[in-house]
Amino acid sequence: MEPTWKHGNRITLIPGSERFIPELLEAIDQAEESVWFEQYLIESGRMTRRFFDALARAAQRGVAVRVVLDSFGAVSLGQRERERLSAAGVALRHYNPFMMRRLRRNLNRNHRKMLLVDRRVAYTGGYCLTDDYLGDWFDVVVRAEGPVVEDWITLFANLWESSRTRGDRANVDRERPAASASAPHWEMSARLVHNEGPSDKSIRHSLHQRMAMTKQRLWMYTPYFLPSRQLRRLICDAAQRGVDVRLLVAGTGHDHPSVRYAGQRHYGQLLDAGIRIYEYQPRFTHAKFCIADDWVTVGSCNFDHWSLHWNLEANVEVEHPDFTATLCELFERHTVESKPISPGDWSSRSNVQRYRERLAALISAWLAGLR
Q1: Which ranges in 181-228 belong to alpha helices (H)?
Q2: How many CB atoms lie within 10 A of CB 242?
Q3: pLDDT tens for residues 244-255?
Q4: Rounded to 5°, angle at Cα 135 from 134 and 137
Q5: Cβ-contact 153, 27 below 8 angstroms
Q6: How far is the C-alpha of 351 from the C-alpha of 225, rounded, in Å?
Q7: Average pLDDT of 10-30?
Q8: Do β-strands 338-341 and 188-196 pair in parallel, antiparallel, or remain unpaired?
Q9: Would the CA dihedral through 259, 48, 314, 297 be positive or negative?
């Protein structure tokens, strides 16, 4: 079913972990009724300890705390930490535990990152709970308030119920409190768009539709640039009809260098089409959003074939000039701190670089073929 646009929301960008981590922790500490939390990549360490401390405090003061972790993304989370959550009264479930008899289904992961507090305020973005993340990665989170939060309630409740194990009776209350209605001065139109595995292509369809419609500006910011053939065609077509197309990606210090090389394999085609490409330099960037004219999508999706096909993902789409201007300002500021890739420099790159691209692209193509 087509996601519904809802008016009367307030969507706020929170850039940088030094800003959004304290806010997320404070939101958990101020929760009065419920805390629902989803996370993909989580490891034992200082960062996770801070979040688990806050979740335990909330449960111990009577807040209904529900946590869903991806079983693969949480493989480096110790059993002691899991038991500590349960002992504090937190209900913990794991998404899609690995099973040898269904190897293909093991590829389907919950890549969403979500915090829903008192069913009134929702946070989403690309943040991870690892110590590498502490000050070393750049990322963004958005805070959502208003009628669109109803869709987060449904999304989490459906996942919670589908992750139930035998004997686990903990449930969630789907009812929306009246306080989640919009305030008179909130005016943003927004909708929650999500993928529910290989059969659901909602984020892809929405993204591709906007790319085909854009008339002035198409700016994409993503750490893992592994575009499908269709996505490459759409952004090249946009550039050739006069749209300002820019690509901002992670540069040196990438957490997965092979992914970077595989994405670079397409630079020549994109540069020839008139697309401007920038590699962010100060540190690894994990932010992901796309701007098409005054429309924005931001959340957990990396816009690569893995996120768009296999993963459970969730993005909030916003169509409002003020919010778009905020994202544009961030994009342009990071462009200044990036290395521009010029057609001349790229055509004269070393043979070693070309070999790395070819090898990484072959591996990427093989993984994509697992679909």
Answers
A1: 202-213
A2: 10
A3: 999 999 998 888
A4: 90
A5: no
A6: 21
A7: 97
A8: unpaired
A9: negative
Confidence of residue 166 (pLDDT cuts 50, 70, 90): low
Helices (H), the chain: 17-30, 46-60, 79-87, 149-162, 202-213, 229-240, 257-264, 267-272, 305-309, 321-336, 343-347, 351-368
Task: Tell me how far apart the alpha carbons of residues 92 and 68 are, in angstroms, rounded to a whole number.
Answer: 6
Residues contacting residue 162 through CB under 8 Å, at least 6 positions apart: none
- Return d(Cα 260, Cα 238) in angstroms, integer: 23
Give the integer Cα–Cα distance in Å for 338 and 3.
35
Q: What region does 16 belong to: left with phi over 0, alpha with psi -120 to 50, or beta?
A: left
Residue closest to 34 by CA, chosen among 213, 140, 175 = 175
In the chain, the amino acid numbered 73 is: G
Q: How many CB atoms lie within 10 A of CB 320?
A: 17
**Distance between CA atoms of residues 162 and 185, nearest Å:** 37
336, two tokens: 């200044």
Output the pLDDT for position 3.
84
- In this prediction, residue 228 carries a pLDDT of 87
> What confidence score (pLDDT) does residue 178 get?
42
Q: Looking up tokens 């690892």, which residue turns up?
A: 130
Backbone angles phi, psi at 241, to 5 degrees: -100, 15
Rounded to two decimals, the pTM is: 0.92
C-alpha pair distances (Å), 292 with each of 87, 173, 184, 284, 318: 47, 36, 28, 24, 11
How many CA within 13 A on the CB side of residue 94? 16
Encode pLDDT of 216-225 as tens digits: 999 999 999 9
Structure tokens at 27: 């939101």
Neighbours of 353 (CB within 10 A): 12
Q: Specify the residue for token string 């960037």.
A: 285
Beta bridge partners of 290: 220, 297
| Total H helices, total E strands in the chain | 12, 17
DSSP-assigned states of every residue in 237-305: HHHHTT-EEEEEEE-TT-S-HHHHHHHHTTHHHHHHTT-EEEEE-SSEE---EEEETTEEEEES--SSH
